[in-house]
Known about the structure:
By secondary structure, this protein is an all-alpha fold. Helices cover 57% and strands 0% of the residues. The chain is elongated, with a radius of gyration of 28 Å. The model is unreliable at 232-267 (pLDDT under 50). Iron/sulfur cluster binds at residues 159, 198-199, 204-206, 209, 212, 216, 218-219.
Amino acid sequence: MPDAALPRKTAAQKARALELLAALKERFPNAHCELDWTQPHELLIATILSAQCTDVAVNKATPGLFRAFPAPADYARATPTDIEPYIRSIGLFRAKARAVHETARMLVERFGSEVPRTMEALLTLRGVARKTANVVLGNCFGINEGVVVDTHVARLSARFGLSRQKTPEKIERDLMALFPQEDWCLLSHLLIFQGRRACKARGGDCATDEICRRFCVEGLRAVRAEATKQSPQSPLHECTPKPHQKRATKPVKKTEKLVAPKRPSRR
Length: 267
Ligand code: SF4
């Protein structure tokens, strides 16, 4: 059942969102979570490690980490200092080692070493906020509880005109109101794929990307600029002077003033 408290969206806004979704699905039929994992607790830990860090960097560190600590109980038995060497290449590794250790300890003590399957329970874990909980619920258990809003999703939501909100929580509410619930998990993968491959933080393929040209205000600008170049006579940009403008722009007197007066001949 849709949440009654979600922001209201018009039928036209929802239809446009569906068109964007279809275009992204067509472009990225294989969109998926780009963190490497095989068991739910691994994805939980990889997502905690990915805060303010790229998935690529996390994927370089996790094979060694997962080999050294195959189960939540292995992290729980260790200390944060034991975990640190495996994730040293990742930013904020000391704080993350503490979060991973504490989360694993809670999994063992409160949840029988299993990753819980509800938002409420996941949010009780150290280092787990809504974004991480959505990643785990959607990817490990196929539960569409919300939409993951990371930096790419936030950026593209603004550029595609899906949300004017600034906080991840409010952007998420807008996306939940616009898109069908069964697509929420996939939607974030699609936006992240587009964000990593076309619309990067410092400028993207505005002029050439078909999806951008249809859905982003920058893309539309590029289309208009192109139209101006190709057909200067296009009615969009043609500037036909009105009768009073024609009179005003007659260059007669101004031009005359600019011409240097002839010197009288000294004959
Ligand atoms: S048009 Fe440019 S700014 Fe807009 S989504 Fe595409 S790449 Fe990003």
